[in-house]
Amino acid sequence: MAKQSIFGRISTLIRANVNAMIDAAEDPQKMIDQLVRDYSNNIADAESAIAETIGNLRMLERDHAEDIQAANEWGQKALAASRKADEFRSAGNAADADKFDNLAKVALQRQISAEGEARQAEPTIASQTEVVDKLKSGLTGMKTKLEELKNKRSELVARAKTAEAQNRVHDAVKSIDVMDPTSDLGRFEDKVRRQEALAQGKAEIAASSLDAQFNSLDDLGELTEVEARLAALKAGQPPQAIEQ
Questions:
Q1: Dist CA 121 CA 131 (whole Å)
Q2: In CATH, 3-160 is 1.10.287
Q3: At what angle do helices 94-175 and 3-15 cross, to 10 degrees?
């Protein structure tokens, strides 16, 4: 997997507005779970890519150090050969002096070659070091985002449980709310009131029937008084006068 691709994905994930994504989701908890999985997978990919990049960088650094060391060693060999040539030349041995001067030249050529290889590797080492630093920083940012997501998920789950508990309490209170006609107690009270109204209706009917019976008694009394007065008249008694 290309390092630039991993770095691009890391940058995209770090810049993502998680809160906006969650707010826009139909099911925030599922959205967070999916984001956690995505971040975990990308973190694993990033760690693998970073490990590979660091491994390559360390190889380049070792090769660079070896080139530097080789350049120093060839420089020391060139110096030693040059000094030996000077000794032979001072002793009048021109042939051996030229031989060691030629060895010094070969050592110097090897030194120059090693230095050139070291210089060529330095820009690559610098760029790879920068990439590794950015990948490490991005990985840290992704891990921080992942923890934020996990905390957000825990907060969301806790809020959902709290809301559910509040709804249960509300429903329980509503079922015994004497002021709510739709509650269980309210419906029972309504049933009792209907029974009381029925009993009152029956009582009024019964009372009306009793009044009628007493009224018939009053009518009977008036008839009896009439018959008594008629009998008195027939017996020669004067009509009764109303007492003043």
A1: 15
A2: yes
A3: 30
Phi-psi group of 92: left, alpha or beta (phi > 0 → left; psi -120 to 50 → alpha; rest → beta): left
Query: pLDDT per residue over 147-159, tens digit each?
Result: 888 887 787 777 7
Spatial distance between the Cα atoms of 197 and 182, rounded to a whole number of angstroms:
20
Residue 109 in tokens? 């050529």
Task: Give the Cβ contact number of residue 166 at 10 Å.
Answer: 10
Tabulate helix, strand, coil % of the chain (nearest 5).
90, 0, 10
- Distances, alpha carbon 39 to alpha carbons 22, 43, 99, 178, in Å: 15, 6, 67, 53
Torsion, Cα of 185, 190, 192, 194 (10° steps): -170
Amino acid sitting at position 3:
K
Whether residue 17 contacts residue 25, with contact meaning beta carbons closer than 8 Å, is answered with: no
The pTM score is 0.52
CB 102 within 8 A of CB 77: no
What end-to-end distance do the CA atoms of the chain give, in Å? 131
Q: What is the per-residue pLDDT across 161-208, written as a single tens digit (0 to 9) for each?
A: 777 777 777 666 665 555 555 666 667 777 777 888 888 877 777 767
Q: Which of 61, 207, 220 is nearest to 127 (CA)?
A: 61
- Cβ-count burial 217-240 (b if 16+ within 10 Å, e if not): eeeeeeeeeeeeeeeeeeeeeeee
Structure tokens at 175: 């079922």
All residues at 6 or more sequence positions from 153 whose CB lies less than 8 Å from its CB, including other chains:
29, 32, 33, 36
Domain ranges of the chain: 3-160, 177-235
SS3 category, 17: coil
What tens digit of pLDDT does each residue of 118-132 get? Answer: 999 999 999 999 988
